[in-house]
Each structure stands twice: as C-alpha cells, then as structure tokens.
User: Fold these one by one.
Assistant:
Number 1:
Amino acid sequence: MVNNETKTVPLDFEQPLTVLAQQIELLEAQLQSQPELEPDVTHLRDQYEILRRSIYSNLRPIDHLALARHAQRPYARDYFDRFDNTWMELHGDRKMADDPAIISGLVTIGPYKVVAIGTDKGRNLRQKQICNFGMPQPEGYRKAMRMFEHAEKFHLPIITLIDTPGAYPGMAAEEHNQAEAIARNLMVLASLTVPVIAVVTGEGGSGGALAIGLANRILMLEHAVYSVISPEGCASILWRSADKVATACEAMKMTAAEIHKISVVDEVVDEPLGGAHQNYDLMAHTLQKSLIKQLDKLTKMSPKQIKQDRLEKYRKIGVTVE
Amino acid sequence: MDLKEWFANRRKRQENLEIKQPLTTEEYCALWKQCFQCRELIYTRDLHSNLSVCPKCQYHFRIGAQERIEQLTDEGSFKELDSSLSSTDPLKFFDTASYSNRLEEASKKSGLRDAIITGIASIQGKEVALGAMDFAHFGGSMGSVVGEKVARLVEAGIENHLPVIIVSSSGGARMQEGIFSLMQMAKTSAALESLHEAGLMYISVLTEPTYGGVTASFAFLGDIIIAEPGARIGFAGRRVIEQTIRQKLPNDFQTAEYLLKHGQIDMVVERPKLAETLARMIDFHQVIEFRPRVAKTKVEATSTHREQ
C-alpha cells in the first residue's frame, strides 16, 4: 500500500486503517490454505480503499498539522534533488556562518533556471541537531538574502520551499539580531524585479517562514499549514493550557484550504492520497508542474510589473473597516 | 438674620455636608505612582510634567500613544490620519471569549480604536509623518489595522515628501487575526521599501517593550534606530528563550543598552532629549542635493539669482 521502500509511520487518525490493514494481511496469509476466503479479502480491500478516501477527505486541522510535521515528509532537499537532477548547492552568508537550516542553490525547473532556497529539518537525529530542527539562525536568513541579491543580479526567478517551525528563540539568535535579519529580508524581497514564488511544503511557522516567503505567488501543499504562531504557542498564551492545541488549530484557520479561501494563498497543490510522504516522486512532479505553470505567467511580465505585482498583492492583504 | 434662622441654616448646612471617604486604592494609585526601579513614590502630576520619567532614577515609564504625541509634537500641530479605521473579526476567532468582544473591551480600557495613532505633525518645526503605538491597547499588537495604518502613513510620507517616524511599543503580531497579522509584517516592510526608493528618511524609535512581528518588520527597518533607556527590545521573549536554552540570561539582556553594545541600534536617547534629537536628525538629512562645500558661495549666488 505504500510506494516507498521504508514503511511509513501511521498517525493517530490513521489507526482504523492500520487495524484493517493488519486484518487483511492475516487473511492473505491464510489464503494459501483456505482459498474460499478470497471474496472476503477482496471485500476488505475495497473497504480499505473506501475508508482511506473518507478519512483523508475529512481531516481536522490538527490532522493536517500531523501530516505537515510527519517525520517522513519530503523536505526542500528531496524536491530540489528531483527537479531535473540539476541541483547545485551554494553555501554561506559571506559574513559569519553557513546555516544548515536554510539551503540554497541553483536548479532547473522545466525550461526555467531558478535560484532555489529552502528550509531543511534534517532526517535523522544527528541531522536534525545540525539543522536545529529546521529553525534558522539569523545567518540563515542572511544567506537567503545573499541569494535574493544574486538572483536579482542575474535576472533569475526565485523559488522558496518553506517547512519550518519558526525562528529560533536562542540567545545567540537575538544577539545576532534575528528580528533585523527577518525584517531586512522582507524589505529586500519587496524590492526585487524577478519573480518570486514561495511554497509552504510543511509547516509555515510565523516570522521564520515569512522571512523567505514574501512572494508574487504563495503556494501551499494540500496538508501544509501556515500560521502566525505555532498552535502550541497560541494554546499556551490564549488558553493557558497545553492540551488545547486542537482548538487553537481550528481557531487560527491555518490549513491550506482555509487560507486559500481568504485569498492569502494563490494555489493549493494536491498531494498524493495519504500525504506527500507516500510518494516523493509523484509529489515533486506535481509541484514542478505547478511551479512551471506559475512561472509561465510571471515571466511574461516586465521587471517593473513583477515588482508592482508583489507590492500590490501585499498592500491588499488585511481586513479593516472605516 | 435672626437667631432662629441662623440655627435653621446651620442645620441645613450640616445635612448637606458631605463626609469624605478615605481614598480608595485606585484613587490613591491615580494620585501617586511608585517607580518600578527605585521604588520611589512620585506624585502623578510631577511624573507627568517630568515626561513620565522618574525624577530620582531616570526610569522611563511606559506611556500611551496620546501622551507620546503630546510630548514630541509642537502644540496643536498634530493632524490625525485614518482615525476611524478599526478592526473586524475576519476569522471569527474564539478562545475563551470572542475576538470581537475582546476588541470592544480593549477599546473601552484604552480609549483607542487600535494600537497605533498616526498623523502629520511638526516636531520642533520639522514636519513629519508620525506614528505612535500604544501598548495599553491589546498589548500593542499588530493586526490588520496597525498594518494598514502604517502602510498609509508611509504613503502619506511619500506623497507629501516627509520623513516618517514611528514610535513602536508592541508585543508582536495579533494572534486573533491569524495569517492576516503575519502578512502585515510583509505589508509594512513593502511600504517602507517604497519609501526607501523615494529617498525619504525613516526613523524608528523603540520603546519599552517592542517584540515579535513588529521588531521583525518595520521597527528594525529604520535608517536610524533610536531606543529609550532601559527599553526591552527583541524578537523572542526572555522567558521563551530561557525555557528553550535552559540557562539564565544576563540581567541586561535585550535592553536598549545591550542592543547598543551589540550594534543593533544607533543610539539610546533619554525622553527629554528625544524631540530635539529627532528634529536635528531630520534637519541634517534635509539636503536636496549634494554640493561640495567649496561651492557654497556660488550656490548662494544662484539662489539669490533665482529669487530675483
């Protein structure tokens, strides 16, 4: 049932599926000795598919969050490696460090050469520690800024893939002025005359996500989430309780579908049934197609129009009454 | 007046005489304030006339947007912009109470429509586009209204060719407006990009406290960044950092002086000198075009020529 070689870890809401799958497996083992079980097995397999579809079409916000944070969710590196096999990584902010939580480089997407930037959470524990669980340091944002300027100089479009819990609340991060690093990125991104497309592939965590997310078009994967504060943070501040996370998820309207409805996100990219981690290749292919479609439109604009388009997009966001 | 009448009047006077109750705690607090730093009791009126700075230890009390504007601007020069702009509840947000109720409550408490007042004013004769945030309203948090008002203020600056000054005081983005609040960081930064392109000046004044989404957008994008003494400024809050890294932070961590030491801000300016500093800063940068000093006499000649 799973296309990847490694078995995926089931989530809470997938429990009924796991139970059913176990039963099917048991029956299949007996099929050799008792061929009369054949219709039962077929029936159960059908049931399994029906249940799977119904579960994935009725996900709660917190289930989307679980999928977005899935340990096997594809990260930026997994996508960049699959984009036409042309990924060339570039390192360092030229000032202080090379933050592994933000990766940057050059890649080809269909007919387009682009500068690509993404966050990296790290796959195993060692990598996760190196990548600080996908939470960039100020040096990471400054590395991204260097790449923005590189793209501007060579008239290359920018693609950013976002999957981060947010900025890192650390002492060094504050001393190196992460607020300024994020703010400066926003200002530089607003000034660019090349197309910028941001894709929230997993967690879009607050300022850390926005620092590489001010774009002409914002895309979100079907199960990705994007919010102003982590649901845990929101629950502990507003409800003063850690077990109100599900409620906070609902209140904040953080799923792709909800954010698309209020027109902050321009396109929701479909994921393979069961989430992006079920099939990396298919997911990368779908995303690539969406990116090419968006780039086709954006590259037709003049540099001045591209900048204007971005400024107007953000000028309109917000709801007020006079 | 005969004696009888006098007695009658006296009785009446006694009936009308009000017996004054001792001051309630609230009234007492309104009359006197205790300094948070040196514990000195200060008569509120004295504190107010001393620009809300403790006369003994120079502790800078938090002040509201209205008081800030009164302190900085020339009397009667402030013309408010977008005073009627107010928040709605776009997400129908509900925690323990609904966001619309909380908005009403906050407005009642602070007497403001939202956490910022913007307008055109003059500071010691220099005309500026000025915004002042108010921590007393919803923790000075930035939602759609703050974002929109900042953007409009910057646009007013561009239109009238004025320098922009924003005095920040904020807990960060307003959670109750969800993703809209986050996007205000982008909106305000994009607006400042246009100001930058127009070659106009932006001075950011950071006051106690400025945190989160506000520091990570317009508050740290100033051409010049000034902070008030002792103000706490940062992205993540002190408690969150301590819990994350599990160690005690230095006492002066995230204070204006600490930031100055770490190269994050240009200067720490005491409140009594703030208006003057701003005016001088603006004056210094009001150079229409660069001319070398030696050409001074020539320039004067051409200008008189133009007048004729």
Number 2:
Amino acid sequence: MTQAAPETPTREAWRMFRRNIPALMGLVILTGIVAAVLWGALVYQGDPFEIVWAPHEPPGVTPEFPLGTDYLGRNIVAGLLAGGGPTLAVGAVAALITMGIGIALGALAGYFGGWVDTLLMRVTEFFQVLPALLFAMVLVTLFSPSLWTIALAIGVVSWPQTARLTRAEFLRIKELEYVTAARAIGAQDGRIMWRVILPNAAPPLIVSATLTVGVAILFEAGLSFLGLGDPNVMSWGLMIGANREYILDAWWPVTFPGLAIFLTVLSVSLVGDGLNDAFNPKLRSR
Amino acid sequence: MSLLQIDQLRVTFQTRHGAVTALDGVSLSLNAGETLAVVGESGCGKSITALSVMGLISSPPGRIAGGAVRLAGEDLTHASEARLRAVRGAEVAMIFQEPMTSLNPVLTVGDQIAEAILLHQDMTRSEAWTQAVALLDRVGIPSAAARAKDYPHQLSGGMRQRVMIAMAVSCRPKVLIADEPTTALDVTVQAQIFDLLNEMQRDFGVAIMLITHDMGAVSEMADRVAVMYAGRVIESGAADDVLDAARHPYTRGLIGCIPSVDHGGALAEIPGVVPPLHLLGAGCAFAERCAHVREGCRLARPELQGGAHSVACFGAQEGWV
Amino acid sequence: MSLMQVRDLRVEFPLPRPRPFAPRPVLQAVRGVSFDVAEGRALGIVGESGSGKTTTAMAAIRLQEAASGQVLFEGTDLLGLDAAQMRARRRDIQLIFQDPYSSLNPRARVGDIVREPLDLLGVGSVSERGARVRDLFAKVGLREDQMALFPHQFSGGQRQRISIARALAPGPKLLVCDEPVSALDVAIQAQILNLLARLKAELGLAYLFISHDLGVVRHVCDEVAVMYLGQIVERAPVGDLFARAQHPYTQALLAAAPSLGRRRSRGFKRPLSLRGDPASPSAPPPGCAFAARCPKAAAVCRDVPPALDGAGHQVACHFPG
C-alpha cells in the first residue's frame, strides 16, 4: 500500500494525466488547433469567402496560399482558420446539449424507476427511432440554418444514446451498497444522484461525451455537405461540402478540412480517455 | 505409495510487481479412498494447488517453476495437453465453489453430464443419457428423469452442486478435488453436500482433496489436514493431531478464532493480515503476526519437518512454542 | 428498555404477471414478524437465504418498503414518518453491510466517507468534525494517515472497519449489521466480531445482527430470532437457544453447523440432515412453513400454522422440544 501525501484532487488528476502519453498528445493537438483558431480570429482579418486567387491552386506553389485555393479561388488556410471556430463551437455546444438532456433524463429514469422510467424511456425511444439526419434537416429548414439551430438540432437528435447509457449505469449503481449506505446516513435523492452515483457512472459518459463532440462535428459537416449549413459562416464541413464535386480534379480543398476534423475528433477522444483514467482512483495508485 | 503425490511444487505468477511465488515448495500426499483437507485463508495458495493438479494453471501469467505432481507415479507437470485432457474428468475430477458459473447455462443438466460421460467413455448418446439420469438419482435429486431436462437456472444452489458432483463422479475418477464446494450454500444444504461427498467416497472409493477455509468442515470431513499460509504448507498431519494439538501458532490461531456454536465469549484473534506475496522477506511469512516471534524467525524460513505430524515453525521444532 | 419494537411487519414484492391482465402475484418475503430490540442489547436474526432476514431488517429501518406493520423506535412509528422526518431519524439507526467491496463509494477518500454523515447532519464546526473523524479512525483500529486513501487500497477487513466508522459517525443508538463478517476470512472475522462486541460495550450500542451463521451470532448477540420462510420460528436468549433449541428447524441448523467437536476420525454421523429446499415464498403452504422438511411433521402441521408462543423462550411449533 503506497502512502500518498494529501494532494488536491485536481493536482493528482493532472499528475496522472501527464503520465498518459496518448492523452497528452491529444491535449497538445487540441491545444494547437484551438490556438490556431484563436490566432486566426485575432490575426487573420480577411474574409474567408473572398476570392483571392485563381481556382484550384495546388498547395505549396504560391507562398501566400500554402495550402492552395478551392474551386472559386478562395484561400484554404483562411477557410481553415475562420471555419475552425464555428466547427468547434457547434461540436462543443451540441455535445453539451446531448450530455445535458441525456444525463438528466437517463439519471431520473434509472434512479426513480417505475412510471418515471417508463415515461422517460418511451420519450427516449420516440427520439431514437427518428432518423437523426432527416430530423435534423427538418429542424434546420424549419428555422433559419444558423450555427445555433444546427447545434441544437444535433443535440436534440443525439441525446437518446446518452440517456440510455446513463440510465443503465444508474440502474446498476443504485443497487450497490454504498448507495444504500448514503440513504442510511440520511442523504437526499438529489445528493445521491449527483454526488454518489454520477461520479461512479462518469467513465462511460465521458467517453460518450467525447465521441459526441466528434459526431457533432461530423454531423455539422454532413449538413453543410448537403447544403443545409449556415451559408454565411465558414466551417470545415462547409468547405468539404462546397468542394466535394471537384474532388477528382483537386484533392486539397476537401482533404485539409477533413484532416482538421479528423485531428480534432481524435484529440478530443484521446483527452476524454485520459480524463477518465485520471479521475479514476483505482488507476491512480499504479 | 500415495495415489496423488505433490512434491516441492513451485508455481510463479507474473504480476505488475514482477514474478511472485504463489506456491513455494508445496508437498502433499493423498492416499486412495481418504479425505485430505487443504485449509487456509484466501491467497494462501490452496486453490492454485488444486488447479496445478488439474494442469489448469493459466500460462502465462502462471508457470510451474519446479517440483512434480504425480498421479499413480506419473508426473503430470510434464504431461502433454492431450494426456492432461484424458486425466481431467476421467482420473481427477473437480467441483467448484459456485455451481452456477461452472455449469453451462444453455444446456440441460442431463445433457451436460451425458457430454462428460461421452468425452471419456465409449457409448451411445442414449446410453449416456440413461447413465446421467441414474447419476442424478444417485446424488439425491428427486424425480431425476424430469430434472435431467432442466436448465441450471431452474435448480437451487444445492441441486446444482449435486449436479456438479454427479458430473464429477460420472467417469469414476480416482481423485475428486472439491474447491470450497459449500461456501456459496446455506448451512443445511452444506451438511447435505458433505454427507453426499462422504457417500460418494464410500461407494466409489474416490480420494477427496477438500479445499476449505473452515476448520469445522475439516473436523467433520478430513482424515488428514494440510494447513497452508502464504504459498507454503506450514503444518500437516492426521486431523485429530492437528485439531487437538496444533503445533504452529497460525494453526492454533485459526482454530481459536472460529465462532463456534458450542461456546460464546470473545474469540482469539490473529492480528494483522496475510502479507502480499510480493512483499515476503527471507524469514517466516507468519513472523509479523506471531506472538512467539524471535529474531531467528525473521532471518530464515522454517522447513516443514517432523514426520507424520509435521510443522514449519522454529519454535515448534525447538520446543519454545 | 425497549429501543425498537417491530410489530407484525410484512413485506411483499410484486412478481411479473403470468399473462396480461392476470392479477399480479406477490412474493411474501416477510410474513408478520414481531420482535423487540432493547437498548444496548444485540438481537440476532438467523436464517438461510430466502428466509427474509435481511428484508426484515431493511424494512424495519425504512430502506425497504413494508406492506404493513409497525416499527416503534423510541415510541415513534417509523413507518408513519414522512421522508424528511425519517432522514432526521437516520442518525440514530446506522447500517453495516456484508460486502466491504461494494459498500464504500470507490470515488471517495475514506476520510470523506466517514465524514459525510457529519457533514449531512451539520454536526459541529469543520475542525470538530475533523477531530471526530480522527477519533473514529482510532476507535475502529485504523491509522489517521490512511484517511486520504481510497477504498480499493484497503483489505476486506479494513474496509469493514471503515464501514463501521462511517456507521458510528452520527452517534447511532442502533446498528443494523447485515452479515458483517460473512465475506471475510476467518481470522479477519474474529477481529471484526471482537471489535463489534467491544464497541457495543463501550458505546452502549444496540445491534440488529443479521447472519446465516449461528456461531457468529452466539459470539455477538444477547438474544436470537430464527427465521424460516418469512417468519420467526423461535426466539430466545442466546444461551437458552443453544442449550435447549425447541424448534426442529433450529435443531437442524445447529446440527448442520460444522463444529470442531465432530470428528470423522471418531465416526461422526450427522443426526439429522434436512432434506430438500424451503418452500417458495410466492406460495407459502397453509400450515407450518417447515412441515414439508420437518422430521416430526403431523397432519396438523400441514393445516394449521403454529403461533409463536411462550415467555422468554418463544417457539412456533406444534411439537416443540
């Protein structure tokens, strides 16, 4: 048994996180992407929609346009920098909405059971059987296709998965004796749900949240690809969508935003895994 | 010569603390038709001993690093996997603590016993089924023909353990290893299972190696006892000798700390806990918990000595315990 | 003086309907149980799995919903309290669980686990609570420097000590112990049983002690109630019960408990081994629940349920003795 000196939980988690090489790499990539996007927003003042050069200039030819230009002659670097913010924002907001609705409903259903469970699960099933993409398309077309409606639409179609997962974890954990122990010392339902059960249910939920960020970014790309994105806001999905027809003529206008999405999703899930391990006391004493 | 002879068996496991020695020179012998109880707390190596006899130590991480397991003279530690498969079930059978997880949930119990019979004996399916029903009847399952068509979850824990015993004796093994066979059962059912094991022994002449942590069970069931601690046998002898005149302080402690129905009052205590195997030093593994410990105990490990009632304790050997 | 009086407690679990719209069958887990726990005394409830012993205790302290009955705790009927009133009462009634591995929140430091009841109750200042936690750690035999560790860094016996410290934190009058040692090794069992006995004497605690093991009960309890199929079949002061068990089921339990006094070497033969398993609690027989397994059963036993009779030593049997 190793004797750990008292250390704040955050410090201890950070110590664990630092030892996790893939998670650290994920954090470095993610920080890089966010920094680039912020830097772009501050430094790069031009309009990413502006046509600045000949179309389909390959990367590395003109120093001004290191990643080349797209089918209209727009700067791809400018597009990536300007499109990153909206893309990340949509991913994060959609993931927050998904986790918020999913965890709240799943926790209530799993913890209280009975008719609460039956009712909430029927609602969940209703949302789950809706074809997600079509439903999101309907929502986006009903309202104006702004970033917020897109994020909301993605959140609304993605939460049932999280709700089911949360419910399953709550069902399992509420039967464990430490939950009964909490009731026996007079803890109220709210405290038991959020302070006792939720932290123990966190590992799969954190993984699910990071996956949701990825799914939301891809979803936004999908909607943009179908022409349902916000046409006035640059995003990585919009770049892919706009250039998809010319992919056989020029690979770079779709590849670089695609790569950006890939790196973002990968780094977010690596960080998620790392966070999960870092906050798991059982792995700490290793 | 004994039917089953374990000689200086050493088993190591690869763990995150490096290689640890789970069994450190264990020697046991089991004679035809007798019951040997191997007793100790969890982690003492009693179950690993049983699994090594069956050739079921998973490797890696486990490894038989030395010694021999001789069944009627044949060393099983060097036997081929094919030979071991022939031995398992036919010559050495085993029953486990949790009969639910040791039975296949999707086959009827009759099918499972018939399967075991067909594995080792040359007969038709219907003959094997008939024999399975006869065995279920033999182990005291009422209306055996109907129960043979039941699935494990339809039976109670005690009934499932009876099924396991029926399966174990189906090929008339010479040795039956029972690893905590009643730990998961109620006390009245435990008594039934003990009675049944004794009956099986009488009728089939099978030698039983009973792995247990319960000194009461040892008293009722065993002819001879081996007490294990931290991967070694620390005392062994006839049940009466060990129970009435235990020589090792640990054995005495184990006997003293049983909450018995025969008397009330405070219990004897063994302070502390079994040390983790990777932290064992050079001395006696029990030294830290022993009331009689002397300087010498921490320097060298006592060997098991003393003929019929042997003990691995300097104090007992030199007469100051 | 009586601390807790339980009167005619019943607990039912609804079972799934056999077919749509059919009446929902119920499993009668506890069928009219009455007992008293006196201040500073320990009542043991003994029974096999399915006897309803744990459900009885959980219903008595409102951690399980009761169908009917009365639980007077210092004169207040707990079953009549609303949720907030009941929470306020919880400080007087605390609980220790069987499984030391699932009873502690794996994500909380053990110091915080023991402190939590104090925080919830708002006992004293922050520094007073800290002092109380340190005091509790010492009381149950743990070191102060272990407070920052997590549950998985402790052995089973130490976890049970943490569990006990948490239960003692609010300063309860009654401690419900649900099989507190049955998951522990025998040497560790003795340590925990002795600790419980010491705390009872030091703090004047009353225990409601659930166990399947008569031996364990004998060492901790002042009075014992034996349960069978949701009912108490015998209740007596501990010495009386072990010396003069009146109910055939109690006698069978005693006969089945392994004991050092019974030696295979001396030709031990069990006097009475119960046949079969208990009847199903979803369809209890009309007469005595034990009749089907009872060696003394007569016609009256199958038709008329015997009442729990007698002063001091009570027994529910038509043919006691």
